Amino acid sequence: MAKEFENSSDTSFDPVSSKAERFIKGTEIRKVTPRSAHQEWSPSENRIDPVRILIESSAGRIETLLPIRYARMMESPFAFFRGAAAIMAADLAETPDSGIHLQLCGDCHLMNFGGFATPERKLVFDINDFDETYPGPWEWDLKRLAASFAIAGRWRKFSDKNCKEFAWHAADSYKRHMSDYSQLSALQIWYADIDLAALIEMGEDEEIKKFHQKRIKKASEHTAHEKEFAKMTYQEGPRARIKEDPPLIYHPTLREEKMVLKAAEKAHRQYMESLPDDKKVLLSRYKLHDVAIKVVGVGSVGTMCGISLLMSATGEPIFLQFKEARKSVLEAHLKNKSKYFHQGERIVIGQKLMQSASDMFLGWANDDDNRFFYIRQLRDVKVKPVLEIMKAENMIDYAKACGWALARAHARSGDPSLLSGYIGKGNELANAIAKFSILYADQNEADYNQMLEAIKEGRLPIAPEM
Length: 466
Fold this sequence. Notes:
Helix content: 40-55%
InterPro entries: DUF2252
Order of helices and strands: HHHHHEEEEHHHHHHEEEHHEEEHEEHHH
Structural class: alpha+beta
Largest sheet: 6 strands, antiparallel
Oligomer: single chain
Protein name: DUF2252 domain-containing protein
Radius of gyration: 22 Å
Number of strands: 12
Number of helices: 17
Number of domains: 2
Distance between the termini: 43 Å
Strand order of the largest sheet: 7-8-9-10-12-11
């Protein structure tokens, strides 16, 4: 936090004060941290080398997968940004904040939003990645989200004017919906969600609407696990096996396989203990059949991630995804230390705090090597954004949707009246966030070029994906 804007006032939720009193308290914080201060970005003279941060964040990862990580980040400045949450966390720690803390996503970029089915089979739009979730300044999520729109917009060859507009709409939507949530009770906020079909219908581009409606229909046509089972497995005697696609999906070596499966069975039993009793009963109908390593995403490449196949006695499958849970990149830059020793538990609780509805199989476990994991269904009617087909007006609509989803998530653990009072009804905050986003897009490009130089010098390994 920049010292000249440091705010030591108590901004925890006050259930005794009225909404109006908390709103006024929010407006008073502007005197300490002006909203215009959020437009600022300039790297300090002692800014940590971004390549050094990448190298440090690779410690403890599977070394043979690191070349894939850097190869993916090389694809564009936007791909680099997706894998560089640790770099931006260090930078955000140097920016002004209002002192209002709540549960953060931590890696709040536009590809970490999308549609999915709730346990009640309703399709909603929400944040869907919480590896870095941690309590911290609310501005950090909004700045990373808005900057992702500016950076993705440049990748799509939109003008800087367009890119600034995308970032502005993300922040403006956040403001408007936070104001709406400030009028609701805590229970009403907890019940709130964003209906995916209704959200798509709000758009004015008929072509893109039809595209997304077809995607929803296709995603909902089959039971997700049965569809994946047909694509991802083969039969080996009485046992179903996950198909390999090296280096992205693979089994441990034959020598290690029995040991790994035994460890997986132990971790699975531990995972079951983290679930509510009703889900334990449900999953007790299934037996662990196979486990494979699966390389996922950009920022997660090199961590221990994979899929496990469970089968019932009558042949029905369930695929679970396990992801290694490391310390949040935010923790090193905040005074408050995590109340959760188990990093998987940290992620699960953070996700349940922020999402309108979480995966019913969401749980955690650890292995004998002291690695922490969180576990969820592999896919369940997931609908991801397709940036490649978006026109400028579609990017604006998507920015509004993401800003809305972030406001809803923040309103659950934060104080929407206090936040709404600080943000105000005008455009000052959105203007500041939009300016910051363009400045940070410039910084991201400079860091991306530094990474390319480090690769040329051999400091970072790369290899083509197969």
